[in-house]
What does this fold into?
Amino acid sequence: MSTQTASPPTPAPVRVVAGPSRHYRRRSALNAAGFLVPFGVLFTAMMLAPIGYAIYQSFYQVQRQGLFGGAQTKRFAGFDNFSAALHDGDFIASLGRVVLLGAFQVPVMLGLALVLALLLDSRSARFRKTFRLTFFLPYALPGAIAAVMWSFLLVKDLSPFTGPLAAIGVHTDFLSAGWIPVSIGNMITWGWTGYNMLIIYSALQAVPGDVIEAATLDNCTGWRLAWYVKIPMVRPALVLTTVFSIIGTAQLYTEPAVLAAARIPGASNKFSPIMNTALTASQADPNLAAAESVLLALVTLVLSFGLLKFTQRRTADA
It folds into this structure.
């Protein structure tokens, strides 16, 4: 009696899927370049070229000969312009004013933005869209118009705040030299709190719902939910808004410039570093102004990236 063994099944042919052809990859690269080239041209022309030209100008000086400055010669000055900028009392004082203003104004502004964002994100919040638009409207108002408006609101004889403060024994002039930084900080806070609130509120909307539900089941509600769950999860948004605020404070110009143009006694046309640099450039010393601009950019870069590195290290150690 013979037995037959079944032959093993014939394996199915392996289908090799060919990758994209070289022509397709080249066409995709050309399509991507077509979208990137316009941006690269504009970025180079509007950002990299001016920055490079400012750095180039900061290392040169123009010497004029004759009583009326007839002949001009340009010579390489090395770091002489930077040394002159660091010995310029008005420029150093403007840097100090901006740093001191930012040290107090930025935390207050971001604290208000965080509180407003948490209130809008709470379950008991009503009319979210209305309040969100209301808080954002000051940012939509141009800075120059807002500064003019606040300059009228803060005039001693017209201000609606002078009477109530005088009733409790506080007699002050918000546009005096001592109160000008506070008034400018108030203008910035009023104009940018809504903008930062939207960034933080968008981050709160991205918090997973199951995380909030689990915290609620653990009886973590109210301010405990905000402090222990929501705020830690929106920390990247808080870091982002802080960096934006540092950069914006370093670029402070509109508010003090409007007050100075309005001949406010306490306002100065050298209040901020950019105002001081613009005045230096208008006085026929563009090379010194370029050096001051480069120094301001370096200070902003160090503060911004220093904050990023600090928060990254804290997050890694946590």
